[in-house]
Amino acid sequence: MPAPPLIPCDVAVIGSGIAGMSAAWFAAREGFATVVVGRTGGILFASSLLDLLAVHPLAERRLWENPWEGLARLAADEPGHPLARIAPARIREAIDAVAAALGACGLAYGDGGNRNRWVLTALGTFRPTWRVPATMEAGIAARRAGAAARIVSFHGLRGFSARGIVECARPSWKALSAAVVEFPRAAPGGELFPERMARALETEAARAALAEALTPCRQGAAALGLPAVLGISRPAEVHRDLEARLGLPLFEIPTLPPGATGPRLKEAFERALAQAGVRRILGQSVVRAEALATGGFRLETENRDFCPGIEARGVILATGRFLGGGLRAERGRVVETVFGLPVAFPEDRDRWHRRDFFDPSGHPLNRAGLPFDEAFRPLGGGGEPAHPRLFAAGSILAGQDWVRSGCGSGLAIATARAAVDGLKKALA
Ligand SMILES: Cc1cc2nc3c(=O)[nH]c(=O)nc-3n(C[C@H](O)[C@H](O)[C@H](O)COP(=O)(O)OP(=O)(O)OC[C@H]3O[C@@H](n4cnc5c(N)ncnc54)[C@H](O)[C@@H]3O)c2cc1C
What we know:
Elements: E1 7-14, H1 18-29, E2 34-38, H2 67-77, H3 88-104, E3 117-120, E4 126-129, H4 137-144, E5 149-154, H5 162-169, E6 176-181, H6 194-200, H7 204-214, E7 223-227, H8 235-246, E8 250-253, H9 261-276, E9 279-282, E10 286-291, E11 297-301, E12 310-317, E13 327-329, E14 334-336, E15 390-392, H10 402-405, H11 408-427
Parallel strand pairs: 1-2, 1-12, 2-9, 5-6, 5-7, 7-8, 12-15
Antiparallel strand pairs: 3-4, 10-11, 11-12, 13-14
The structure holds flavin-adenine dinucleotide.
Flavin-adenine dinucleotide (FAD) binds near residues 18, 37, 323 and 324.
């Protein structure tokens, strides 16, 4: 039997994290026939907050109220940082576009403007971020106003203690109090899981029962804070409905992973990709990539019955770092796992990590990644682009520590935009 034909496309994106899905969405919106192939990764653990830049310089632990001012300082100090290599207006445009697309798919975001916001966490701390899901915004306003807010947890939900949150957060938000209620239809003494709770709340009957359970918690409260379980596919709608039933503002608090916010973000992205016409080959790894004499690429996935292979005119590599599997650390070196591209990392293994695990400057290995040119093409051994039509986006790029800088999603989305801009020129 002849082998089934390869899937032809203009752009193949490898990796389906925030960078890969954003790149696929941008490419399709440019009119390219686009395929994204990726296995599930860290996006399932995401809080769905879209960070832009919170901390810089890391050693000083300087926090920025205005992330754009932070980016200007970053560009001056670290011109090689991926975010320093994209015009701020382009970064803003890219994140605005993705946030709007996610909003149109049920996951609405508040406006970012020029300010970072401080979001209450399940640990009772406050963390800075730029774009906040609409379901979490009322907490920011309530804290700013010093309003009386009641944090509510549910019997059986681990890692989310209303009392613990209130204890930790009270020094900076005095008017907080705690309550614990039963989640509707929960088995007595059983464990609750955020994703299941969130899916249950997509039904009207569950929302009506939850509103009833929460009614006593309204007493003396100007707002209620709940774990982030208000729906998966239609959180904005679930949130609005519950607020209307209870007659006061509700805000979600991101839970510890795995929560409902990661699947929510992933599914909103997948709907946006479907609407943009992206062909999605998910749950699959690219196991072999070959540059063709025609100037394009042939990609092979792990399950040929599921996907016979892809033939693309250009490729965007968005396979993440160590957690995503885009990079792998061996005894004395770091390798890029799809193309075997050169990776920048400290050659002396003793310098991969600092002696102090909590050193605010971060560990040099966390800046390892692909060196790239001004078009976001990874470099080959000689310092020239490895291939004229191969681009890279997201945390696989060298010269950044997104975890400590608090720039994860912003970096993923902005570099996806830059890679698509580069690819557009290369395919013209
Ligand atoms: C626990 C956690 C919490 C986070 N919270 C936030 C937050 O609150 N705010 C924020 O802004 N950011 C947050 N982020 C960061 C945000 O998700 C980053 O933007 C992201 O991790 C980096 O995105 P990425 O797409 O570059 O890489 P990844 O998310 O690592 O995605 C890479 C993808 O490529 C896939 N892949 C790897 N190799 C292959 C292959 N050969 N073939 C096919 N697919 C492959 C991986 O499986 C993975 O799905 C969080 C991340 C984590 C892990």
